[in-house]
Amino acid sequence: MVRILVTGGAGFIGQHVIRGLQSRQHTVRVLDSLRPDVHGPDSRWQPPAGVDFHRGDVRDPAAVDAALSGMEAVIHLAAKVGLGVDVGDLPDYAGSNDVGVAELLAGMARTGVGRLTLASSMVVYGEGEALCSEHGSVRPAPRLEAALASGDFEPPCPICGRRLATKLVGEETPFDPRNAYATSKVAQEFYAANWARVTGGSVAAMRYHNVYGPGMPKDTPYAGVAAIFLSALRRGAAPTVFEDGGQRRDFIHVRDIAAATIAACEGHTVGSGTPRTVGQMAAALASSLNGPTPIITGRYRLGDVRHITADSSRLAAELGWQPAVGFNDGMIELAKATSYSMN
After folding, report:
1. Which of 50, 162, 306, 325 is most exposed by smallest CB count within 10 Å?
2. What residue ranges in the chain does DSSP mark as E strands?
3. Percent of the chain residues past pLDDT 70, beyond the cut
4. Which sign does the torsion angle of CA 11, 28, 257, 95 carry?
């Protein structure tokens, strides 16, 4: 049994992690600021029985030191999420995520807590890597607005311009952050590596892919396309899918994410390893609710990633983790959930 601090434990993933930790007889403390843009302006989150809840900000050294007192390990989930498309968003991402993890690591050094499991993200990879029939493994060239406007959604080979085949993203893939959130996650990983080298601590960075499942928030940037599709279906409208619906993602159930995070915390890039398209997700949710067929709009957002799916073989080999919730079962469970949020 380990004494574990979970930052951001009142959030979507955090609440599943807490339940998983308690089921394995760990002692759990939560540090969460209940920030309004995540939990709403009047959040009154109550921790599960047996969980010691500290309301505070990871950027506050006093709150961090108090929360770390007596702990043996940290699972750091607290973060500002979303893409951060506007340049004006940069200070908030840097302040919330970069300063937040820096203060946490400084506090861990002060208090002698030497084990960190860090929630990172697949967004650190950008478009990842793909396969060109002539040039082999390449980093996809940026998608140009003129091509998107004409309905050509596939990223080209940066050398010859040919259409690329998709490839699972392994941990050795170089970083290519393309928005404020992604850049802040890269910074968090580097800060954690600096801390580990200086203090002799250990860190596991979990690069989460597209997490869904019960308790998924409805109105926050983290909710993603699943919540948007469900909102449409529950008001009787067809979900609208951008581009041609063929964007490949790795949809991973929140219970599988929680199990992998706990395994990393105990055992010291997480996806299911099974690519699906955004169109398949919309169709599965519509089918589960007997709703209207999704509408493929052809609309696009410049800067969106076309294909990004995980190679989780190292996680399976080293920690014995495998996803337990199948895509179809997970979509049915999500569609039939009575509410989005556990706040």
Report:
1. 50
2. 3-7, 27-32, 52-55, 73-76, 115-121, 130-132, 136-138, 165-166, 202-208, 210-212, 240-241, 248-249, 251-253, 276-277, 295-296
3. 87
4. positive
